[in-house]
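dude i think i finally got it to work??
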Amino acid sequence: MAHRWTNDLTRDDVTPYKDYLNRRQLMAGMTGLGLAGLVGTGSAAAATDLTPTSYEDITSYNNFYEFGTGKGDPATYAHLLNTQDWSIQIDGLVDRPGDYKFDDVMKEMTVEERIYRFRCVEAWSMVVPWNGFELKDLLDLAGVQSEAKYVAFETLYRPTEMVGQRLPTLNWPYVEGLRLDEAMNPLTIMATGIYDKPIPNQNGAPLRLVVPWKYGFKSIKSVVRITLTDYEPPTSWNQAGPREYGFYSNVNPEVDHPRWSQATERLIGGGVFAKRQDTLMFNGYEEEVAGLYEGMDLQRNF
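look at this
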């Protein structure tokens, strides 16, 4: 599969996986699978002075309100979620609507490793080595119709297992959306793993969206439905706070959150005195995605 980006993040920038695999084993596995060069992009990695954080932080410092609002809640409660026999309903403006079984989808997809920056709207960041496939390939499997302009996503609603859904924190189930051209961009993936392991429940098992130039809440977790539409779909955080969370939610150091600056970010893993670094436009993926927003007012379309 051809890709239209360059490599500027390396294993030196990645949160280490020392508790499960040592670095040599991991790199050997990547080389054997032909994955070593398939990493995230951006033009300023050398200048960001990324500080590796621990694997424990990637899997324990999470926002996944379906399991609670605390950063440790997902790791504490996500084991309750049963991900067996998972399927994804794909409907709307597609040629082949239906329930797509996760195992069947995986047989059709090309899974790659993508090392991407991850930037939360709360102004903290990580670097995560995802395993996954391009969302475009899944949409092509369903057959996108010409009238489609947007892609809507929905998270599983199962409050018996997702204990945070028992509270009215958000209007459940969690929903998100992208413009079709954003969804079809080769950087946009559906992640199924981290560090060559199945993605943990607290990180969005078994299937989550990853859009690396947008704030993390756009990357909806535990997806069970994808709908192609001709109108902009509602999104959970925009519904909860339209003044604070826009539909686009692109990482932009020049557009502050109403309650805090987005000019810098805190790297997870540095403790109380963690070093802050400048936030990169589009999270460092400006060269690849800025053209999607040419002519748009990014202050208004935040």
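Confidence is low (pLDDT under 50) at residues 1-5, 17-52.
im so relieved honestly
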